[in-house]
Write a structure and sequence with these properties.
Elements lengths: L3 E7 L8 E8 L15 H13 L1 E8 L1 H7 L1 H13 L5 E5 L9 E3 L7 H22 L7 H4 L5 H10 L16
Parallel strand pairs: 1-4, 4-5
Antiparallel strand pairs: 1-2, 2-3
Helix pairs in contact: 1-4, 2-3
Length: 178
Amino acid sequence: MQKIIGIDEVGYGSWAGPLYICALKFLEPPNFKLFDSKKISEKKRQLLFPLIEEISEYRIGIASVEEINTLGLAQAYKKALLRATEEIEGKFIIDGKKPKYFDCEAIIKGDSIIQEISAASIIAKVTRDNYMQEISSTFPEYKLNKNKGYGTKEHQEAIKKHGFSEMHRVIYDIKKYL
């Protein structure tokens, strides 16, 4: 029987930073309950991360800001998805809608139903959040450590005051929010 590989992304709607996609399968069943990464605290995600790592095999595909700005979000997503899934075998189940170019099952809100997708969601979120924390020191005025690149009021105000950085996705019409 093929192992299930859960797939989820983090950062799709972000205004800054890369897009992360995780493809994950369990090597042994978790002895703890998992939930969608957006429904649990950052502290709990950080605690779950090493527990998930210990019992799983996973790959992360990243689409850089440069790729997103050059190719557009849909094509950059495709590249990240293919990177995440190129060296992992099993039955792919993705959270959300099924991409036309990728052989998988898709489940809306799968990150709340399928444990492998929940785990992929947590791995992707913690990994991306840690990266945003790291780059925040290079771009302190945007407080990326707090907003993770999303369009919070504080982030909007920082863009109004400082303009865009090299970490911003200029393909978006962010100015309509300012």
